[in-house]
Amino acid sequence: MKPGMLLFPLDVPGNSPCPHILSRDHPPGRGNRPALYPTLSNTRQRENGAGLPVAGNGCHPGEGANSSLPGPDTLCGGDIPSHAAVRHDATANQPFALVQAMMTTFLSSAQTARASGAVLAPRLVPLVGSLLLALLTGCTLQPTYQRPDSPVAQQWPASPSANSKTAAAEDSQSAVQTPWQDLFADAKLRETIQLALDNNRDLRVAVLNIEQARAQYRIQRAALVPHVSATGSYSASRVPQSVSSSGSEYIGREATLGVGISAYELDLFGRVRSLKDQALETYLATEETRRATHISLISEVANAYLTLAADMDLQKLAHDTLQTRQDSYDLQTLRAQVGNASQVDLKQTEEELESARADALTADANVATARNALELLVGKQLPAEDLPVPGALANMLAVHDIPADLPSNLLQNRPDILSAEHTLKAANANIGAARAAFFPSISLTTSIGRQSPGLTSLFDRGNNTWSFAPQINVPIFNGGELSAELDVAKISRDIYVAQYEKSIQTAFREVADALAQRAVIDDQYKAQDRRTQAAQAAYDLVKFRYDNGVASHLDVLDAQRTLNTAQQSVISTQLSQQTSIVTLYQTLGGGWQTRAGSTDSVTAYSGQSSPSR
């Protein structure tokens, strides 16, 4: 190896919790100049009070053959990324110095034991202590996480309605935290939502995804502790005389029994802990995804139930209109038979009758379709007593107003945004694992047990056996694979930053749209209601004039069509008025809270809480 060649690169954040890593030139908070790792061949060492070597002046900026400050991707003798200052700790050792000290202790203990004829095991105590100390004080190379700035305004756009209400932030917050049971006044609707929470398959899949992510986190966390296993074996073999070293055949037997640790990695640079943090953030993201599914399901079921109620109102209106058209046609037929009505009036009445019949059939199909959509969300067939009755649409919600002047920071309550942030944190932790791959990895394999030529003598005195096999793996050349993996981790983090910001922008737009709808929908409903009343009065007046021979039959038909259209419009506007409240409630992140003392079945089904770190 050439002098000055960098063996262990460094790429850690300015406040990385790495007590082993020193940077003489960069104490805390001194910017982001590159901090370079000392080399093997160009390092002057000194001893501290404990007799352990501490790395001194290595390949630092301004030293060696090249005194210029290297760029972010160029270090002393290699093209390995390093572009951040490191934490200073004058009482800690550099990772390489620590590894060298442990190896020196182990070799010295072995030589002393062989020279004195003593058992090697007592000499392992200092080494094991050093290894445990290194394990407990290891560092992580994760960048310091900082939440990206919100890419949206502090407030939603001004309401287009001059009569929109305003509220303080704390009042808005309490409105968002309203339990979903308190949002709905109709008992049938609440029961239907609870059935959906009990039986919906999408929500069940979301819960099972949480179980899977939690188990994956436990698997990754288990890598932090040694895995101890017991082994036992017995073998017997016959050696023929032709190949026997003693000239006679014999049967060889061997029995072993031991307990040991196999290939346990000392997490000196936080690779395993970074992977554990990544798995934890993935679990938390999955939990937030479950919450988002929960809220979305409540909103979808409520909107589907309201839509079914509106369709049933439209169905009743269509059948009432059909009956009116049928009565009018029967009357015109009778008048035509006695010569008091023309064939033109009769055919026009027949045309309106068939049009009303087609509308009634369409309304029947819409009700059946709406019921099927609701039952799909619920996950089972709804009993007839749980279906809405005509005319109940206006009385299904207990909350009829949500404050319109809300701060945009309420978006932090939305679980889809929290899920995106946890995914971003997982990508941030993955960078730490990719950085740690540049450094040496140390694994331990050790065992203690018994060995004898037979089972009967396995526990006799003098048959003790032990083995201790530490192994260090130092990356020297890998064709740029590690650098590419680090680049992939950083680019993935940048992608998740963009996705996190996009989720905030999407949520901002959804709330802004819901607020814009809420600002005008009440006035729209009032206008449609006044239109219906005027159409009803106009129809009554035209009908009266027709009965007295002043208006024509065509005037009556036009008034009927106008009234029917207005009645349909008022039902549709009333549906939009109700669903706008549910939509605003959902977009603000409401719907997860439950009443005090109540537990959703999905929560009971998962039985989960956040795992300990």
How much beta, percentage-wise? 5-15%
Query: In total, how many beta strands?
Result: 6
Name the strands of the widest sheet in spatial order.
3-4-5-6
Task: Determine the N-to-C terminus distance.
Answer: 41 Å
Helical content band: 40-55%
What gross morphology would you assign? Answer: elongated
Order of helices and strands: EEHHHHHHEEHHHEEHHH
Strand count, sense and barrel status of the largest sheet are: 4 strands, antiparallel
What are the low-pLDDT stretches, counting only 5+ consecutive residues below 50? 1-17, 19-99, 117-123, 160-174, 601-608
Mean pLDDT reading: 76
- Overall structural class, as computed from helix and strand content, comes to alpha+beta
> Helix segment count?
12
Radius of gyration: 39 Å
SSE order and pairing:
Layout: E1 45-47, E2 53-55, H1 95-116, H2 124-136, H3 169-176, H4 180-183, H5 187-199, H6 201-222, E3 228-239, E4 250-266, H7 271-338, H8 343-378, H9 415-436, E5 441-452, E6 464-473, H10 481-547, H11 553-587, H12 601-606
Helix pairs in contact: 1-2, 5-7, 6-7, 7-8, 7-9, 7-11, 9-10, 10-11
